[in-house]
Amino acid sequence: MNLNIRTATPADFDAIWPVFHTIAAAGETYAYPRDIDRDTAYRLWMERPRQTWVAEENGTLLGTYYLKTNQPGPGAHICNCGYMTSPDARGKGVATAMCRHSKKTALEFGYKAMQFNFVASTNKGAVRLWQKLGFEIVGRLPRAFNHPAHGYVDALVMFQWLENTHE
Amino acid sequence: MNLNIRTATPADFDAIWPVFHTIAAAGETYAYPRDIDRDTAYRLWMERPRQTWVAEENGTLLGTYYLKTNQPGPGAHICNCGYMTSPDARGKGVATAMCRHSKKTALEFGYKAMQFNFVASTNKGAVRLWQKLGFEIVGRLPRAFNHPAHGYVDALVMFQWLENTHE
């Protein structure tokens, strides 16, 4: 795979939206309304974060991620990222590549740690991947994720200190 | 104490702001920028939440709190609250009264649980109070809170399932 990760432009949302919409509508992994509209999604994915990236192969979007400050003030040294891989591109290491890229970027931006606030515990592939990439489960929110098939399942808080850390 | 808790109006922010500003500037308990300006504070405390309340005694503001949905979509059954007690009114049970009020309101609004995302572990009085009021520590974020006196200290995630629960 020859993946190119670059900063997203507003025009990239044409390719991002079908991926975002599919993942949000499934309701299995992200805390977005399942019926989210395109404008709201644009605001949440492209405008509210500090920066958004796309991962492409030969000009085709395979994934996208954002980075933002997780909490202002006394928590501002910790960032939060969200990653989406195109359903057509699963199993190719796109999420791994984006996560590695995000950790490097986070350090360049001056963050000391990264936190995922709300990982559905049923999303075992993602949990394993984040653990492999150095994240620890630091919290378990009981029945905090309303899964369309499994009902109320636990959500996990995952965390990694980045500064002076090497994979 | 004859505390009256009622929905805040925009005019109440004249009395809320000195309390908010003092607490934010101290930087010891809330994840707000220490140099936050009044307009930003108004947006965060009065506009972004689903609703905001004031706690008064004889027309004097002793405390204020907000309630909002903590995560949209699959997490929308959980709310988040933030409470501020006037420094002049500490030790009178204002936070306890506001928290009890918020738990009742949360159920009326249809929420099933309440979560505090970022409680400074050094804020032992608050941690003890939330535990007394039924919250459990469900997560510990290592060195996630940059305390002005103690440096990087852990932040706690606290959680309470409300539905079918009685104090």
From TrEMBL, chains A, B:
InterPro entries: Acyl_CoA_acyltransferase, GNAT_dom, Mito_N-acetyltransferase. Residues 3-163 form the N-acetyltransferase domain. Pfam families: Acetyltransf_1 (PF00583). This is GNAT family N-acetyltransferase.
